Every structure is written in structure tokens, then in C-alpha cells.
Amino acid sequence: METAIFVFSGFLGSGKTLSIQETILKTFSYTGKTSVIICTEEGEYCYKKDALKDVGIEVIEIEDKEDFNEAFLERIKKVYDPLNVYIEYNGMWDIEDLLKMKKPKGWYIETIFGLVDSTTYPMYLKNMRQLIMTPLRNADVIIFNRCDNLDKGETRRRLKLLNGSAEVFFIKKDGSVDNNIDDLILNTENGIINITDDIFGSWFIDCLENSDKYYGKTVRFKGMVSDQLRLSPGQFFLGRKIEICCEADAQFVGFISEIDDISKVPSPNEWVDVEAEITRGKVKGNKVMIILKVKSIEKRSD
User: Fold this and answer.
1) pLDDT digits (tens, 9 = 90+) for 56-89
2) d(Cα 98, Cα 73) in Å, to the nearest integer?
3) Residue 168 near residue 153 (C-beta atoms within 8 A)
4) What is the pLDDT of residues 241-298, one digit of tens each?
5) Contact between 4 and 108 (Cβ < 8 Å)
6) DSSP the chain
């Protein structure tokens, strides 16, 4: 029999305990098979162990990271042979250690939840950026709690650069889901959208997710030519490196660009100022994607 593992990651105060407990008590039906919550830190709220036990949930507490290992998981399997395992993972532990850890036979990670307290997120982002972003990079579902004053649109777009496949949810202080995502504000001059350096990453994600509102529009930005793709004559891949957690994990994002005058195709790793129309193009296999039709291009010397 297989055992599904649900991982809840995040710093203290992010809402891990309540999320696990409320989800189980509201949706879990006891089938005669025991499930297990593994709690790896003491938070503000405690588990209602009696209520959880009534639906077949055992709570196991462990504090030392050294004790959270393969042998510990094997003991859980031997004693409980659980249907599901819910891990409240310590926010100060590297979640990649858990992902690399050998699991008991038949155990598999079903879903990783990344929980964030919106009121402390800016502070952690400034001072402990890599520590808070690593769990979010690995999460299948990202939940921001207490997000009444958070710039949700910008936050979501930045996270999509980090983890494009994750679902992102924002929860208000009253517990309701906030679906009102702030639009990306762009500076337009004489009908041309100016993409400044600081918003390039956000615009890139917005362009992918809301392509229809950009088709036919003209943009102006500074970009670098990638040397990693082989394209047709007159085409080049233009974009920028975007730093996600730290300089070491910067990734190159951008779009295929086309220019009629092949002699003006810039060289790999060259920086250029470009003005281009966003069009709906086709590449290999007739896959529809954004292609920038270059109107003007100027090589930069700085």
C-alpha cells in the first residue's frame, strides 16, 4: 500500500499548524487506517490531539534535525503503516534535505505547500532571501496568509519567475481568499511601452500569462542576446538575466526576436536597445508563442 506525504513548509507564524489541522478536521474521514502528523517545531498554536485522534490522526513531535532522518521515517512506517503523512517542516531547515532523503518503500511526496506570513515576508525577503525562497521554489502550492496590504500582483509575478508551475493563493486576515490581483502598471509614451530594468521580469511573466493584451503593442527595452539557442536566419533570443534568490541562481528569460535585415542581427552576449512589436508567431511544430518583430535596434557600448 502506498503512503502519500504532504509537506507544509514555512517560517514560524506562517500558518502551517492551522492549515494542516483545519484541512484534516474539515475534510478527513476516518477509514480505519491511521495517518500521521510529524511536527518539527513548536509554534504559536498547538494541535488538537484528541480531535485529531478521533479521525485516526496521530501527532508525533520531533525537534532536533539530526533525529529527522531515514531511520525515523522507517520507524513511523513500522509502528503506524500510515495512510497519509503530514509533515510540518521547520522553516529553518533546508527542505532540499527532505526531498533528497530516502523514503520508506511505498512512500511518495504528493504535494508540497509553501506558507508565508505576508506581514513578515518583506523582512525575510530582505534579510534571509535564499532561506525563504528555497521552499517556495520547491512548492506545488504557495499560500500567503494575512495579505491585506501585500502587492499581490507583483508578488505573484516574481514567484512565477522562481517557480512557474506553482499555484499561488492569497488569504486575507479574515480567512477569505483574495482573488483581486493588482495589474502591472506600465509606462507608455507615444504609444510605446517602456520596459525599464526593474520591471523586466514582471513584464515577462505578465506577457506570458496575458499575451492577448500585448499582441500588436510596441515595446522598448534594453536586452542581451543569448548564445544558448540556434534559431533561423534573422532570429535571435533577446532578454535579460533575472536574479531570483541570489546572483548564483540568476536565470535568462526573454523572447525570440526577428529582424528583416539579417545584417543587423546582434552577436551573442551583446547588449542592445530594441523597439519591437509583440506578435503571435509559430515555431517548431507550429507551436504558437510570442515573437518580437524588431522595428529598430541599436547596439550598446556601455
Assistant:
1) 999 999 989 999 999 999 999 999 999 999 999 9
2) 11
3) no
4) 887 766 666 789 999 999 999 999 999 999 999 999 999 987 666 677 899 999 999 9
5) yes
6) --EEEEEEE--TTSSHHHHHHHHHHHH----S--EEEEE-S--SS---HHHHHHTTEEEEE---GGGSSHHHHHHHHHHH--SEEEEEE-TTS-HHHHHHSPPPTTEEEEEEEEEEETTTHHHHHHHSHHHHHHHHHH-SEEEEES-TTS-HHHHHHHHHHH-TT-EEEEB-TTS-B---PPPPP-EEETTEEEE-GGGHHHHHHHHHHTGGGTTT-EEEEEEEE-SS----TTEEEEEEEE-SSSGGG-EEEEEEEE-S-GGGPPPTT-EEEEEEEEEEEE-GGG-EEEEEEEEEEEE---
In 32-42, which positions are buried (b, 16+ CB within 10 angstroms) versus exposed (e)? eebbbbbbbbe
Helix 129-138 to helix 152-162 angle (10° resolution) is 70
Distances (CA, A) of 295 to 40, 225, 260, 269: 57, 16, 9, 20
Give the residue from 201, 221, 231, 237 showing the smallest Cα distance to 277.
Answer: 221
Nearest to 95 by CA among 115, 77, 80: 115
Report phi then psi at 234, rounded to 5: 90, -5
